[in-house]
Write a structure and sequence with these properties.
alpha/beta, 5-stranded parallel sheet, 15 helices, 22 strands
Length: 497
Amino acid sequence: MNQNRVEVYQQNYSQNSTIIIGSGPCGILATKYLKENNNVICIDNREDIGGQWHFDNQNEEDYPNLQQNSFFHHYGVLPSSLYENLQANIPKYLMTFKGFPCKQEYQEFMKAEEFYQYLQDYCAYHNLKQYMVFKTFVSSVKLVKNLSTEEIEKVGFTLNKKFLVEIKDAQNYKENIRFLQADNVIVATGHYSVPNYPKIGDISLFKGEQIHTHYFRQKHLKKFTDKHIVIYGTSMSAHDLICIILKQTELQQQPKKITVIGNQMAIDRLKQSEAYKEEINCQKLCLSSTYIQKIVDEKSLILESGEKIDDVDVLLYATGYQYSFPFLENSNDNLIELVPENERKNSCGPLYKRMFSVKEPDLIFLGLTYNTISIQQMFERQAIIAQRFIDKLITLPSKEDMLRDYQEDFKQSQSKFVDGRDYFKVCYFVGLNEIEYSKQLSELAGMQLDEEFNKYIKDLYVPISINFLQKGNYPWMKQQQVSHLLPKNYSPNEALF
């Protein structure tokens, strides 16, 4: 859409130069805050902004020339896309950026296409797309100081900055290979593209269909008609799919049975659900609080509790994603480490405040936190800190102190899962409290907390979450209204954190 931006960026190397990878919400925010004082380019492999909010009807099942696609070549999958008819899990006032309220006519819990339009409007208002280049894939990020003589000779121009970044055509990983250099690199690629599949004994025996939520599209509903679907996992995507299948799909097109298997706390919440009471009573929705031990034949599995589930037609994984950064993993710089290294990649580090690479703080990650109520504001606060650091308005502690801080944070996150899967979990109810994390970020940024915004979280949304989400009434939560309790055209105060 703006391929000349590469040439403009190269012509301005005399300025402090920052490459932003990804034009989802975090990349958009980073571009907005950094464009004033820096030479900025935001690079995305898609044809437009939005990240996973950019709906793509095609996926690995029907994508033309899949093997040539750069993202697929490096990740083994295509980038994730939210599926049709999805609604946000939090009210619109918690998804707005500073000084830019949502349109009043948008639903309280916005549809995916409404929030996508919000991102488009935000980019247009701040004229951000002039700093972006699309259909371009970032294949490597390397420290110039560690490059070999052969690598330097391939570049073809003088290197005088910290990072060398290789880019290529998004549709063909062999075409249009070029190099850029940067003082700073911001990684805003998210972590919802590489599906996680749990280990299940004798999985090869299962002859039914296996689908991860990564691949789900509305067209899959036809495959579910009159089938027995096992949903493995109780993440928000599992709740979305249960709601779509049982509450938004015509009765004659629904499966004959859904069995949900997951952790005990989430299953116990569903068992008390009033919203699904009818489906539970007639055993159309069955719930098991355990994990799959193994497959016993082509349509049956057994749980760790000993319970056997028979006549399974579809195994639908709602089991989350792994952290993956091939553009960093293919270098010898070792700027990040994936945890665990050789199994499910639940986390990465060492990262100071879940943002800055301790080994090289000019490599900054945005948007890795999850389970936060104030999701977009959390990301905006991270973008503000990145901008203030790059513009030298704030300084970071020594590498030794940052590493010590990270190790303490990571150890605390291991209280529930020793494999680190809770490190990025920032939740109002469990784990690292997001208000506490916001305080940490505000102190780092040297900015005052927005107490009004935090009050709206506590007084307006938390009761909704307790009364509906935590009582298994997910479909009813999406029907709640709170905007009338807020100032008209509310958005967070631009002068506060």
